[in-house]
Amino acid sequence: MKEHLQIWYDRWLEQHRNTNLLYVSRRRDEVYLDQVHFVRDDLARIVWRGATIEERPKVTPPRNDCFETAFVIGEHTSKSIRLPVYSIERPDLGIRFVVRDNFHGWNISVIAEKPVTVDLSGFDVRPDHCYFEGFADDLQFGSLSDNPCRFSLNIDLKFDVYTFVWLVMRGVRS
After folding, report:
1. What is the pTM of this model?
2. Strand duo 25-27 + 150-155: pairing
């Protein structure tokens, strides 16, 4: 499975239009998943910052308002809600983030062509707390210190996820 995030999300929204699931937010009487907006609008923007049109994937966005590219590559269930496993890829820079949120924390696997050097000392990172719901077996790794090109970690706060991705991308671009 690999489909554009917005296509997956549009289908999810239609399927859950009349739902009252506890962990799903409502805005203007419409359901939405905050995590999809965070990945689509914030994380993908960090990953794709500075890329030219030619460097972006040759994927036709499902709508004109889809500026950034992210994909859904799997699903998992948390709190009785079907949730996506996201992939944000920058092939031109040799970096890929596989991410999922289960309302308790974010699991992230990083696949990089070159070793990632990022200082995680300020983060509440617990690589031993990775739960890989929805991740394919070949996307589950050990810690950064085990292999700086392929590693997984768990980060509790989405603000820390944002900062982590920003730091990794800053290092990849330099």
Report:
1. 0.89
2. unpaired
State both tokens at 132.
Answer: 């890989």
> Is 33 within 8 Å of 9 (Cβ atoms)?
yes
pLDDT in tens, the chain (174 residues): 899 899 999 999 888 877 776 566 666 666 778 899 899 989 999 999 988 777 776 666 666 666 567 999 999 998 888 899 999 999 889 999 999 999 889 999 999 999 999 888 877 666 567 788 899 999 999 888 899 999 999 998 999 999 999 999 999 987
CA distances from 9 to 29, 55, 151, 174 (A): 17, 25, 27, 33
| Amino acid at residue number 104 | H
**Cα 117 from Cα 81, distance rounded (Å):** 35
Domain extents in the chain: 3-173
Write out the two tokens for 165.
Answer: 């991705």
Find tokens 């289960």 and name the residue. Answer: 102
Amino acid at site 52: T
Q: How far apart, in whole angstroms, are the C-alpha atoms of residue 39 and residue 45?
A: 9
Q: How far is CA 76 from CA 73, 96, 129, in A?
A: 11, 20, 17
Q: What are phi and psi of 22, to 5 degrees?
A: -60, -40
Q: What span, in angstroms and rounded, lies between the C-alpha atoms of 156 and 101? A: 9
